[in-house]
Amino acid sequence: MTQPGYTRYTLRLEPAGAEALAEAPPETDDWSGAAAYERRSDPAALEYAHPQAVVLVESLPTGGWQEEDDGHTLVFWIEEGAEAQKPAVETLARLGVLGRLEVSRERPGWEDAWRRFHKPHVVGRLYLRPPWYPPRDDLLDVVVEAGLAFGTGGHASTRQCLEEIQEILPGPLLDLGSGSGVVPFAALRLGFSPVCGVDIDPVAVHAAAGNAALNGLHPTFLVGDATDPGYPLPAADTVVANIALRPILRLAQRAVGSDAAARPDLGPTHLLLAGLLAEQGDKAAAAFPAYEVVGRRRTDVWLMLRLQRHV
Question: What is the pLDDT of residue 3?
Answer without folding.
Answer: 62
